[in-house]
User: What shape does this take?
Amino acid sequence: MRTHTLLLLAVACGLAILAAGTIQLLRLANEDPISALHAVGDSVRVGDLDVTVLSFTDSGGTATAELRLGGVDDPEGVDDFRLVVPGRSLEPTGRGSDDCVGTTVALAECTVTFDTSAASGDGRVLLYRRGDDVARWQVTVG
Assistant: This one.
């Protein structure tokens, strides 16, 4: 092959790589950021439900998130809350005195409790998934 042909092939390959990179960049720019963390007090729309984390405490092996929920009647609407701790994800225990039993159209306040007695570290992220939507609240810094 002649040098001229090799140079043209190299330029064509470079343009193909540039085009593919541009397409991928545009795809990523149109996606919602999945790693956005909200703060305690932030109200977030997750699917068809409005969720506000009013407060969070973690002491004595029990973590409690006080919530305000509303937007849809769903008797299992709180089952998809998780508390993410270093190395694992915890499900609600349902053993708090004011634990949420479901959601309603009207806004209501209740709590979600988690057993953190075996959790290591201090980092805590409250996660809620509803359908394809996910919201995360940074509830402690660790």
Notes: The longest helix spans residues 3-29. The chain has a mean pLDDT of 85. The helical segments are 3-29.
